[in-house]
Amino acid sequence: MLRLIHQVFALAIKARFTMYLLSRVLLSLTKHSHRRDKEHNDAYLAEASDTCDLEKRTQNLDHRASIQLTIESLRNYCASREG
Question: pTM higher than 0.85, yes or no?
């Protein structure tokens, strides 16, 4: 019986460690994605030739961000309706 309890605890510790590693990997991927997007946006804005071009590029980035937010909201809504 004691051996069974020991095995259950060992499995629980392994499962927790696996979940910890998985969460770190996902966090790392997300962080890299955000960093890559920021660098891309900064480079896009740096290519502006004058203030009018910079304003247009800023509006384009804002528009893209609002579209992404809408898409994510719709995905979350659909997922909540399914579950």
Answer: no
